[in-house]
Write a structure and sequence with these properties.
205 residues, 8 strands, alpha/beta
């Protein structure tokens, strides 16, 4: 369940199964444009460890970031609340070292497994208790692991999202160091010019 398009509507009000068919039409969702795809691949490479690791992609949608991560040699587990999104992700990554599960990003159904990276794009802002989710995700990390969070504040008339300063505050109890990378001005990531707040946070224990 990724959610930039919810700028005028609460993410909780959207039917993600119904949206799945057109989900990849957005440039930064489907990554069909080579320039957009390359831009996300470069950013992801800078956020993830240099060596192959286990990545938990929460709110994975149709699996576009999962695909980039597997292409960079990582082992991926993707989780999304929408069965239709998960079905499309499985088809997109058929034959690759990845597992997709239907479940809640705030409490993913991974049992006692731990990961080197928890990757979350455009999900945290829509959760009812983001601080609690961050604490839970921190518990899913192995020693030396990292949270990679891509978030923003979308829209100008009725903006929704979570500002970078607020996210830093929420991360203070669970992360040893926090690095914020501003993304709004990198038009290649979005396939268009944007004027709202978009950013990534890499949080290390």
């Amino acid at each position: 369940m990724t959610a930039e398009k919810g700028a005028m509507t609460s993410a909780n009000d959207l039917d993600w199964d119904a949206l799945a068919a057109a989900f990849d039409d957005e440039p930064d969702h489907g990554l069909r444009d080579p320039e957009v795809r390359d831009a996300w691949a470069r950013r992801l490479r800078s956020w993830l460890p240099d060596t192959a690791c286990d990545v938990l992609d929460l709110g994975c949608g149709t699996g576009s970031l999962s695909l980039l991560a597997t292409e960079q040699g990582h082992r991926v587990t993707g989780v999304d609340l929408s069965p239709v999104m998960v079905e499309r992700a499985r088809a997109k990554l058929a034959g690759r070292d990845v597992v997709f599960l239907v479940g809640d990003a705030a409490a993913p159904p991974v049992g006692e497994r731990q990961f080197d990276v928890v990757l979350v794009r455009h999900v945290l802002w829509a959760l009812p208790d983001p601080g609690r989710a961050l604490r839970h995700w921190r518990g899913l990390l192995r020693p030396g692991g990292r949270l990679v969070l891509v978030e923003g504040v979308w829209g100008t008339v009725a903006p929704v999202g979570i500002a970078a300063d607020r996210l830093r505050e929420l991360l203070a109890p669970v992360a040893g160091s926090v690095w914020v990378e501003r993304l709004s001005q990198d038009t290649a990531l979005w396939g268009k010019v944007v004027d709202d707040e978009r950013y990534a946070v890499v949080a290390l224990e």
